[in-house]
Design goal:
It is a single chain. With 515 residues, the protein is mainly beta. Strands 26, 30, 31, 32, 34, 37 and 39 form a seven-stranded mixed sheet that branches. Strand 12 and strand 13 form a beta hairpin.
Length: 515
Amino acid sequence: MKKKSYLSLCFLPLLFMIVALSPACKKNADASGAAPVVKSVRLYLASPNDVEISNGDPKTSGAIYSNGGVYVAIVGNNLKNATEIDFDGVPASINAAFISPNNAVVKLPIIDYTKVDTTKLYSLVYKTPGGSTTFWFKLGPLMPTISAISNVFANPGDSVYVYGTNLVLVQQFIYGGTKISSFKSVSDGSSLGFLMPAATPTTQIVITTKSGTAVDTIKATPTITRISNENASPGDSVYVYGTYLKNIQSLSYAGAAINSFKTSADLKSVAFVAPATSQSGPVSVTTKFGTGTTIYKVYTPTYLQNGVIENMEGGWSFNGMNGWWAAGSGGINKASNDPFGWLTHTTDFDGVLGTNNSIFIFLNTGILNSGDGAWYGGSGTRLSSNQWVPVANLNDAPGNWAIKLEISVAKGWNGGALDITTDAGGGYVYRWEPWKTGTAYKTKGWITLTIPLTSFRASDPTLGEGMGASINKITDLLGPTGNTAANIYVHNYDAAKTATGFYGAFDNIRIVKIK
């Protein structure tokens, strides 16, 4: 045995020479003994959809962002028997079954670019028993983007976040014209945190990263979502609701400048006293970030403008409109003359339309039993047919149009819904139930109620009328011509009696384009 082993050892060099002369054996020897060579990196997709993402030059190669779920194919020589494959200095998992002498399919690792060694950025290090090679390609964050800011009105020193994508490897950050020296990215690059600087002389944001530069502006243009009373009398309190209502430079109501106003702490409303003006016009708020203006007009003579369904002034006919019939009562201020001879004189609803003598409908239902309430019998009123939306606009999005009316609830209201339906509505109902916030509801004089047409809903099998799906198109509610009659009434949907009746008035019912 010793003699045989000795002979075998003597013949080993000859055996290696024979293997070396064999092409197949030479290939195996290269895989284990020669240094690896990487020629390119491709996204691992079925041909012909595979895409080359590198040519060895990170300046001209394509770029990809690793989220740990992307596979790439490494193309080269001597790739068999890989011991380590690093991307941007982060090791990847190796599956020997996916590696051949000329190709290696590898899943990219999750790379935290807030902690990556920047000296290894854009590098691929491939190691085998035969050696190691470094190949450069742009594996890293793509161009940064900016999508939102957490709080544009933060006080100096408060924490603020810029949201977007690829907000890592930041080289320079300028917010509102001020260079920010200290900031922190989250690992996935979705936000960049910093402290609000003492001064922001401009609205520009510039974020420069290793991958490029994102330029945006601080977006805080004020918006107006609703107005508490669009037909207020001079001296009445008015609230404008919206967003970004801070550092207001100018405010106008119906074209009249408002010089004294107060912004709420949450920046969602501005309060002021209605000016003495007889003109109509939009409401406008201007800050350093821009101007928000209503597309509709407020104040008298709003009731004379297009879009009015009924303002009660002319009984069954006014300005060519059809009229109304009240199962409730028509009202007028006690100091005013009754043009019809049957209106109820009251001061409970003074102040509508900037005067004290406007005609209006009011309802005084008393306690309602379960299921009580209809447009007839003292619980409501009927509006005769009128053109709600111009025929040319019937294909508009329903959310672009709204019913507006002035309403005043003189006594605490708890129970029942104020319903609005149309003859052409196919069962769609709008239900107004503000008392459901927990206390009996009462207004301080007249307010403007805005009802987007999308607030009209079908019946739900469980929840009942007006609680199902919203209308899909305007004609669902108004019919093919946009001309329909309507009903406004109080109805009790609960199994028990209402805690109170409804004592409220409404006037100046109109259809307005709000978007």
